[in-house]
Design a protein that fits this description.
single chain, 0% helix
Length: 126
């Protein structure tokens, strides 16, 4: 059973940075499209960023474009989310998700992701 484990969340001040990591326990990670999503209290889960299986394509929500970066290291079965210029509205539980078919990234939504991590809390203070 594939598992995704996020880490790197915590407390940051507005304008600060955090880096999230997500490690996948699968032998076929290099074929996975990977995504990051977030859910704030009382709100629906929303797309943040995604990366294709080849890392040739990345996708971002408008709200994070220019501030967040997604990349992957297939040798380490890990996908990262670098978050810069954090804002209080970035406060949420952040989830990584994996799509073994490798096609979900361009959808910029939750459809197609079969595996989800448990989430890591990110809190940004003003």
């Amino acid at each position: 059973q594939e598992q995704l484990v996020e880490s790197g969340g915590g407390l940051a001040q507005a304008g600060g940075s955090l880096r999230l990591s997500c490690v996948a326990s699968t032998r076929t990670f290099s074929t996975y499209a990977m995504g990051w999503f977030r859910q704030a209290p009382g709100k629906e889960r929303e797309f943040v960023a995604a990366i294709s299986w080849s890392a040739g394509n990345t996708y971002y929500a408008d709200s994070v474009k220019g501030r967040f970066s997604i990349w992957r290291d297939n040798a380490k079965n890990t996908v990262y989310l670098q978050m810069n210029s954090l804002k209080p509205e970035d406060t949420a539980v952040y989830y990584c998700a994996g799509d073994p078919e490798g096609t979900a990234a361009q959808q910029m939504g939750p459809t197609g992701y079969d595996f989800w991590g448990q989430g890591t809390q990110v809190t940004v203070s003003s």
